[in-house]
Design goal:
Belongs to the ETF alpha-subunit/FixB family. This protein is α/β, with parallel strands linked by helices and about 325 residues long. It is about 30% helix and about 25% strand. The chain folds into two domains: about 180 residues, HUPs (Rossmann fold); about 110 residues, Rossmann fold, CATH 3.40.50. The structure holds flavin-adenine dinucleotide.
Length: about 325
């Protein structure tokens, strides 16, 4: 029987989607071994976060009422103390900028193995196994953990978020935060260019690649996005050319997205791009090349010139 503790993530007053994905991962892991899943949330609008996190399969919610936004030193202290009190076998944290910031520090303090950027975590014949992708998703490696106890960061977008309600009791946790040990401070929050658009939260993405040929042609893509009430994202060459902001890049060196619908327009489907969008529920590809790899993962494909297809789609949707 192995218990699991998940630490939720929030930013600017909202819980991040990855928190609900970690609940799914944690619930599967805990229930397979007959253990409990507990969820912790630190700082921010603690009461409403706790209510939102009362999800199916959650046994207990621990709240640490300290601070508004993420702070490395506070999280490191609070999560270490929570771990000592709750004593889970597996600690699941988001493989996000914040998670990657404090997970190694917590693992070091607890003297536990640390496995990062995991796409799946499960019980194998010999105990806990964490699956990681290498070489842009071409190869999977399975990391076996001795004695099962570990700190694991899970890549956002790999598990479906849990949205069914539960009735977990909330237990405030009295973490003793040493203020002398808080040597970092969040000075402010500044969105990167294009930060007004969060492609990771969009339900429908209209994604554009090098097939668009010229910057001026992007108007066509934005017109389609407007007709579909969608958000525009891109493959790397479009961003490298400076035609769209880095915040819109999908892929290994961009963002991982899991929209309901992903329209790949003039995108070949290189592994580094696919690594960021393969979790989309429905993938539609428009490409002149019938052998483009994007068609291997597309649910619907149009082998045609985007300059013919996109205006027709805009007319249809309008
Ligand atoms: P191309 O591969 O050039 O494909 C363009 C496609 O458009 C072609 O399939 C073509 O048939 C089609 N086309 C052309 N004209 C038309 C038309 N008129 N109508 C319809 N279709 C048309 N890439 C990412 O996207 N995201 C990443 O995060 C990323 N990270 C990387 C990290 C590393 C370490 C490396 C080495 C590479 C990374 N790449 C990334 C780059 C990746 O390898 C590809 O080069 C890139 O994804 C290709 O982008 P593309 O599909 O837009 O362009």
């Amino acid at each position: 029987m192995s218990d699991v503790l998940v630490v939720a993530e929030h930013r600017q007053g909202s819980l991040r989607e990855v928190s609900f994905e970690l609940v799914t991962a944690g619930r599967e892991l805990a229930s397979e071994s007959g253990g409990h899943l507990d969820v912790a949330v630190i700082g921010g609008d603690i009461d409403s976060f706790a209510e939102e996190l009362s999800l199916d399969g959650v046994h207990q919610i621990h709240t640490v009422d300290y601070g508004e936004e993420f702070n490395h030193d506070v999280y490191t202290q609070a999560v270490t103390q929570l771990h000592e009190a709750v004593d889970p076998t597996v600690l699941l944290l988001p493989n996000s900028v914040n998670g990657l910031d404090y997970a190694p520090a917590v693992a070091t303090r607890l003297g536990l193995p640390y496995v990062s950027d995991v796409v799946e975590v499960e019980w194998g014949d010999d105990g806990l196994e964490a699956v990681r992708e290498r070489f842009g998703g071409k190869v999977e490696t399975v990391v076996g953990v001795d004695d099962d106890a570990a700190v694991v960061t899970v890549r956002p977008g790999e598990y479906s978020p849990t949205d069914s309600d539960g009735d977990a009791p909330v237990e405030p946790f009295d973490a003793v935060i040493e203020t002398d040990a808080i040597v970092t401070a969040v000075l402010g929050f500044e969105a990167v260019a294009g930060g007004d658009v969060d492609i990771t939260e969009a339900d429908v993405l209209v994604s554009v690649g090098r097939g668009i040929e010229e910057e001026e042609n992007l108007d066509l893509i934005f017109d389609l996005a407007e007709a579909l009430d969608a958000t525009v994202s891109a493959s790397r060459p479009v961003v490298d050319d400076g035609w769209l902001e880095k915040g819109r890049q999908v892929g290994q060196s961009g963002k991982v997205v899991t929209p309901d619908v992903y329209l790949a327009i003039g995108i070949s489907g290189a592994v580094q791009h696919v690594a960021g969008m393969k979790g989309a529920e429905t993938i539609v590809a428009i490409n002149t090349d019938p052998n483009a790899p994007i068609f291997d993962i597309a649910d619907y494909g149009v082998v045609d010139d985007l300059f013919d297809v996109v205006p027709e789609l805009i007319a249809q949707f309008e």
